[in-house]
Design brief:
The chain has 381 residues and is of the alpha/beta class. The chain has two domains: 198 residues, 3-Layer(aba) Sandwich (Rossmann fold); 178 residues, Rossmann fold. Helices cover 42% and strands 20% of the residues. The chain has an eight-stranded mixed sheet with strand order 3-4-2-1-5-6-7-8, with helices on both faces. The protein has a six-stranded parallel sheet with strand order 11-10-9-12-14-16, sandwiched between helices. Helix 5 runs antiparallel to helix 6. The protein starts with a strand and ends with a helix.
Amino acid sequence: MKIAHVSIIPAFSPGVFKKLEDKAQISLDNNIDVDFYLLNPMKNYHKKNLHILKKSYDFLPSAFLKTIFFRLFKLRNLEKLVDLNSYDAIILRYPLVDGFGSTSFMNKYGNKIFTEHHTDEISELFAVNRLVDKIRAYIEMCFAKSFLSKVSGIICVTDEIRKIELKKIKKNIPSITVANGINKNSFKKTNFIQFDNKVLKMIFVASLFSPWHGLEGLLSLLQSYTGDVKIELNLVGSITEFQNKILSNIDTENLEIIVHGKVYNEDLDILMSRMNIGISSLALSKNNMKEACTLKSREYIVRGIPFIYAYKDTDLDGDEIFAKKFEENNISINEIIKFANTVSKNRELVLKTFSKYVEKVSWENKMKTIEEFVKKVLKDK
């Protein structure tokens, strides 16, 4: 079975590109017959089964208009640029219904389309709180049912999102939850250093610290910390002016916060190898969500670094020895210190458990699961 995986993004995203690049290579390595396409306004690139397709509107006078036109004609452009008829199945990263030609597109290809959902689209659009996104949210509320009711199946990265999408349709359509994966070969296994009960070294990594990461809440807890253990918080990534202002006002004994900015490759490997624990997302409710499959948690698993988090992770039960799950409103610095003690005392068991979960969160496992789902649905039609 030949499958096309299609993403349509109105701005070239290095993160999305890297994910597709990893999935494309892993598909080749495991004889999974999938071609990956990314329709975007900035870049052309072709390598084996990965195709980055550029469609821009440079004649328009503003970036806003270029983005509007890209969204309006995305499905028509997809038809022109990709021979969709040559594929048995199409996995389409859900593009929203804010463009022309959705009905005719689904009438042609709906019987072999599987939409892929990474978020609660309507809630996310309202959360952005811009007028144009509110309008897109209302369009989605009105027309998503018509689009999604014609697909052959739905693939979601969390069970929470899967239930939201099925509720839109009110129709029995095959669906599956497959969490985001990771290319285990993209990260060095750094492991973690044992906590000496004197200095707790924590690392918190994000490209840009967004509200759902929960940095502000963590800083508030640290600001009121009065314990004897010295805490060293390493921040890797870009911080906002507001976050920088909070940092400048913190003057707490036994607390050191180091802002590294963006760190990559070997420098990041070295920094990770010096840490006791990592920090993953702590405020997912800011996105009106409870469940997620964050890349950062998967990176910690592959690297072998215990971590804390405050959400329901699709691939975790919540009681793993290598991770401490908190409720957002009940995060405790003292409990974090206790967790660091526990994983250090059980270091060999923690590292052994990590090795079992690496396969579970790898793209190799995820891609095989998706391929099997698509084949089964189309065979049973």
